[in-house]
Specification:
alpha/beta; 24 strands; binds nicotinamide-adenine-dinucleotide
């Protein structure tokens, strides 16, 4: 990866050979075991990170608690100005950070840059929002009374993120949390810790330039045990966790046990319905990008294609044909379409899925396999595969975080396809390809898709920051990013003010002394 300027990128981002894994801003320390980050691109060691211990975490929490005392009093538009400056720094660091995302996570360079662009976009969004944290005014039923509601800063927000969006998910949370007056503690995925170090270096500079206290942006590193310190901690009113459904169930219970809030962004099992009225060319682009982009490691990746029987053969042949064109290789090389999986464990899960689908009666249409030899030394490069399957197969019901696409056939009208689409435990992203208005509206109606995201004539993969992002059922129900997602980061208060000399009670209750 040297030829792609990785050394310079790491230097520009302040990522060293061995990094302290705990930070309160400009202070860095750590007393835990050292763990390593290897690139799935070439199998090389990128750097090491010292994990956070319980004592390190305690220092972080003290710093964050102190910082919140002053940060919550700073006017929201001034907090917006800090986020604006953060967005500017991200613009300056876009190339270096995008490269690191691509090298440490394995997504294409374009997607690495895209992820940083998403961070910049959410900063812009948050800056505007910092002047629009509106509450309603209500008419009181009592004379001489006024009612309104306000949103106050909530406290320390804990962020737990997944490997596949190693930087953007943090920004989706922090940009909003900061303008809301919260301070943040972030535990990045243990598979992409250096992306976390780089991001923290960028925001630390902004905080220093503005003479802001330590504790507004904190970083802790390590595996799930470090995450558990936050989920069990009463001082953290909100834990925002992105990752597998398995993790989300544990996090939700830990937070609920102390009546804390959790914002969950978990696994998907996303489908595209292809009706007889679909534009086949658009369908192929949407489905193939959705299934193989980021090597199938997006929460919104397309896992299932639900195709009407009348056009099934045509769509199948077009997609199988398109898979023949895919170039698999180093994601930093922009000629390639498909990069590696994150690690060998992911490769094992991919292999398991392909074995299982055959065991359950599925038929492989495009063979998978692990690639070896020059350029594939990391052992993480796999061939995108396609299998004909049934929605009832156990493996189809399950999210395999790899480029495995299942083709499912439906007959009759679109309601049958919607039943199949909804017939899984997850509810993140969904799409229909059709030029038939009735089908499109049925899909978007109350009887339609049960997912948090439902698209017409675009695929399932990816989303813009302007909308609220998240999904239902086992995807966890959380919403992040645009629309009114900011409200979850604030504490809501209803106020009633009496400007008379008497004290009338609500509901006309009389209480005379
Ligand atoms: P993962 O669940 O293995 O890990 C995610 C994070 O949770 C890591 O930081 C991990 O250390 C932490 N964690 C795990 N167990 C924990 C526990 N008991 N307590 C506290 N923290 C714990 O997920 P992953 O493999 O990194 O990411 C892939 C998964 O993330 C997929 O299922 C994908 O769909 C999902 N994802 C969802 C979204 C979304 O917005 N819905 C976005 C990205 C990824």
């Amino acid at each position: 990866a040297q030829q792609f300027g990785m050394t310079e990128a790491l230097e520009a981002l302040g990522v060293k050979a061995i990094n302290e894994g705990t930070s309160t801003g400009n202070n860095w320390f750590s007393n835990g075991d050292v763990f390593e980050s290897y690139s799935p691109v070439d199998g090389q060691l990128i750097g090491k990170v010292k994990a956070s211990t319980a004592a390190d975490y305690e220092k972080v929490m003290q710093s964050a608690t102190e910082a919140f005392k002053t940060f919550k009093l700073m006017p929201a538009p001034q907090r917006g100005e800090i986020v604006r400056q953060f967005g500017e720094k991200l613009r300056k660091n876009k190339e270096a950070l995008g490269k690191l995302v691509s090298y440490e996570m394995g997504k294409s360079l374009q997607e690495g840059y895209g992820e940083v662009q998403e961070m910049i976009d959410i900063c812009d969004f948050a800056v505007g929002l910092s002047r629009q944290l509106h509450g309603l005014t209500m008419h009181s039923e009592r004379p001489g009374h006024r009612m309104y509601e306000q949103y106050h800063p909530m406290g320390i927000v804990g962020i737990i993120s997944a490997f596949n969006f190693p930087v953007a998910v943090w920004a989706w949370n922090t940009a909003l949390a900061w303008i809301c007056g919260d301070v943040c503690v972030w535990k990045p995925s243990e598979k992409t810790p250096l992306c976390g170090i780089a991001c923290q270096n960028i925001i630390a500079e902004v905080l220093k330039e503005n003479n802001l206290p330590e504790g507004i942006s904190c970083l802790i590193n390590g595996d799930y045990k470090v995450g558990e310190l936050m989920t069990h901690d009463k001082r953290i009113p909100l834990v925002s966790a992105t990752g597998s459904t398995r993790m989300g169930k544990i996090v939700a219970q830990a937070c609920a046990a102390r009546l804390g809030k959790s914002l969950l962004e978990l696994g998907g099992n996303n489908a595209i319905i292809v009706t007889p009225d679909a534009d086949i060319k658009m369908t192929v682009i949407g489905a193939v990008f959705g299934a193989v982009g980021t090597a199938g490691q997006r929460c919104t990746s397309t896992r299932r294609l639900i195709i009407h029987e009348s056009i099934y053969d045509k769509v199948r042949d077009a997609i199988v044909g398109a898979y023949g064109q895919l170039r698999i290789g180093n994601p930093l090389d922009q000629n390639n379409h498909v990069g590696p999986l994150i690690d060998k464990h992911a490769v094992e899960m991919y292999n398991n899925a392909l074995t299982k689908v055959v065991e359950e009666g599925g038929k492989i249409l495009v063979e998978g396999g692990v690639l070896n030899g020059a350029g594939y030394e990391s052992g993480c490069y796999v061939k995108p595969a396609i299998a004909e399957a049934k929605n009832s197969f156990e493996i189809v019901q399950h999210e395999t975080f790899a480029p495995v696409l299942y083709l499912l056939k439906y007959s009759g009208d679109v309601t049958n396809a919607i039943d199949v689409q909804n017939g899984v435990a997850q509810g993140l992203s969904s799409a229909i390809m059709t030029n038939n208005l009735r089908e499109a509206e049925a899909f978007l109606s109350a009887a339609g898709s049960d997912c948090g995201i439902a698209n017409v004539n675009i695929g399932t993969s990816g989303a813009e920051i302007g909308g609220a992002f998240g999904g239902e059922k086992e995807t966890g129900g959380g919403r992040e990013s645009g629309s009114d997602a900011w409200k979850v980061y604030m504490r809501r208060q209803t106020n009633t003010i009496n400007y008379t000399t008497s004290l009338p009670l609500a509901q006309g209750i009389k209480f005379d002394l």
